[in-house]
């Protein structure tokens, strides 16, 4: 029998206090960092029903199901992992995560070409590990990737927005995901390799071409218009052509572009 995910019940007053203390805000909620008996914890507080709309109840139930499944995975290999959920009057409000104060967002910590190539490999390995558990990561971007420069490790946050098997779909979709949606809202499991490739291309292109990082749709448009990244080997450009086709067809074979990034 798997582990049972703990849940704590809090009051409405405590909820408002937490929201006021939160230091970061994302698309689905805000983050509060605190310590409990000296142990650092990150708490994600979901936005209310005015944000999620009429799907609020079903989205929260889906998230609760995913969090329970993630918690039950023995020796989950991700430095960020689920500790417990919290609720008010029986309704899920968010969850707590293990947290390493030495971690930083990828976009803040990793700047050099060689560092990026090193961490791209680690990210790909983590995605492959998630696949072995039936997990598809839903929103690969620099803000959702954490790195520890001391230990040379990386981890994914935003764990409530993954897809797990055929039970728990992704809740909110980035625009580039739409062609990959299948029956009942599930996405092709190869989508995360496709999105990871877009993340890699965005990181490298903005670095070499000295432009801000673009939405993935705008980046794809430049490739469709004939732009050929000089930092890719010929096999990498063939992968890029497959991705351009997949952006319309929603069918990708899961090839990673990382082996075809040129060395300096």
DSSP strand tally: 11
Span from first to last CA?
A: 50 Å
Low-confidence stretches: none
- What is the tally of helical segments? 8
- SS class: alpha+beta
What is the helix content? 25-40%
For the sheet with most strands, the description reads:
6 strands, mixed
Mean pLDDT over all positions = 91
Reading the helices and strands in chain order gives EHEEEHHEEEHHEEEEHHH
* Shape call: globular
Short description:
The protein has 8 helices and 11 strands. It has helices at residues 12-21, 49-52, 56-72, 106-109, 113-132, 191-209, 216-224, 234-249, and strands at residues 7-9, 24-25, 29-36, 39-46, 82-88, 91-98, 104-105, 135-136, 145-148, 153-156, 163-164. The N and C termini lie far apart (50 Å).
Describe this structure in words.
It is a single chain. With 264 residues, this protein is of the alpha+beta class. 38% of the residues lie in helices and 19% in strands. It contains 8 helices and 11 strands. The chain has helices at residues 12-21, 49-52, 56-72, 106-109, 113-132, 191-209, 216-224, 234-249; strands at residues 7-9, 24-25, 29-36, 39-46, 82-88, 91-98, 104-105, 135-136, 145-148, 153-156, 163-164. Helix 5 runs antiparallel to helix 6 (191-209). The longest helix is centred in the middle third of the chain and has 20 residues, at 113-132.
């Amino acid at each position: 029998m798997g582990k049972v995910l703990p849940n704590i019940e809090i009051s409405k007053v405590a909820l408002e206090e937490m929201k006021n203390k939160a230091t970061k805000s994302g698309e689905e909620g805000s983050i509060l960092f605190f310590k409990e008996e000296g142990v650092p914890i990150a708490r994600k507080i979901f936005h209310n029903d005015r944000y999620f709309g009429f799907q609020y109840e079903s989205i929260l139930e889906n998230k609760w199901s995913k969090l329970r499944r993630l918690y039950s995975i023995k020796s989950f290999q991700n430095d960020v992992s689920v500790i417990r959920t919290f609720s008010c009057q029986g309704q899920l409000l968010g969850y707590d995560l293990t947290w390493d104060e030495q971690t930083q967002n990828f976009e803040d910590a990793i700047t050099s070409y060689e560092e990026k190539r090193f961490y791209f490999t680690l990210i790909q390995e983590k995605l492959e590990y998630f696949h072995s558990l039936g997990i598809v990561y839903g929103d690969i971007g620099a803000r959702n990737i954490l790195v520890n420069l001391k230990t040379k490790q990386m981890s994914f946050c935003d764990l409530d927005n993954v897809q797990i098997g055929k039970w728990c779909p992704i809740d909110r979709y980035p625009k580039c995901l739409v062609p990959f949606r299948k029956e009942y809202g599930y996405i092709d499991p190869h989508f995360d390799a496709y999105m990871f490739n877009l993340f890699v291309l965005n990181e490298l292109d903005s670095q070499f071409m000295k432009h801000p990082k673009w939405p993935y749709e705008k980046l794809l448009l430049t490739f469709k218009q004939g732009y050929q990244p000089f930092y890719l080997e010929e096999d990498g450009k063939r992968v890029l052509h497959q991705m351009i086709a997949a952006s319309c067809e929603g069918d990708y074979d899961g090839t990673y572009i990382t082996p075809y990034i040129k060395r300096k």
